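Re: duplicated header lines in exported structure tokens

Our pipeline writes sequence and tokens for each protein into one text file. With two proteins the header for the second block appears twice in some exports. Here is an export where it did not happen, for reference. First protein block:
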Amino acid sequence: MAQVGAAAMPVIIGVIVLYGFLKNVDVFDSFLEGAKEGISSSFRILPTLIGLIVAVSMVRASGLLDILCSLAEPLTRAVGISPEILPLAILRPISGSGSSAYTLSILQQFGADSETGRIASVLASSTETTFYAIAVYFGACHYKKLRYTVPAALLGDCAALVFAVLTVKLFG
């Protein structure tokens, strides 16, 4: 199986070059043009990404995550889920690496087969790093009106939390 994976990329590149040759497309010039556009897009979204990284660092260092989680802890206990799920639900839309590290710590603390571990796994795999995706996609096309995007995306993250809990509670 490892050999198939190792051979996949050269085969795909070969098929692309062959297709370009058959269609009389200068594949190398097309590649260079695409690479130029990619570098240009990277430089355009760089300020947005730097701002996002600074914001994530500030949220982590300020203790805001802990404050939000302590305020919502009575709600999580009333619903019957572990309060440790809430920081993951808050962190996931902001930071992919931070939420991955937190998910790993939940799995180490509670175990992968525990209800908390299963909810954390389903939640981590069913949500997106919302603010990163918005920064990249909207930054790349210089779109600044996020009037409906952020609320809709965060509503999707909330729905993912609810359905992650329901899925694990109902289907175990």
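Second protein block, exported in the same file:
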Amino acid sequence: MLSEGGCGVPSLMEALEARRAEVLGQAERLREQIAGLSEELSRAEERLARLQIARETVEEVLAAPSSPVPDTDAAGGGAGEVAVALVKAEAELDVTVMSQEYREIIALFATSGAAMRCKEVCRHLGLGIEPRHVEGMRSKLKRLVERGILAEPSSGLFKVDGRKQGW
């Protein structure tokens, strides 16, 4: 029932435009939800990748030959103990210990079994021995002491230690 002069057509067009605007708004809200879920998915995939890397590192350490490591008794632990710490860090989702930098440090201590100072660790890992590198390494080593993976038997000297891990 259109009224004279096509008055009904503009109201139909207004209704269509209102419906169009409503659907556009709904589409925009759905795009925002998809973007948010995509970001959340990316973060979850990143965490999974880090966990996989940690698992592979632990498998590498555990698969290392079981020949005696020099100074293992003096160091208070070895590859097996460090592997236990990595497994525990993975279970607790400790991303600090599972990061590439920390895994390299842990692997160095696990394979050498020796007590080392910050400069020595920097040299072994191919870093510079400038104060900024040494202080950065000291900070990382102190974090590993806090987590019970390393011990600091005397000021500035670090070695493998699993007492806090129950070794």
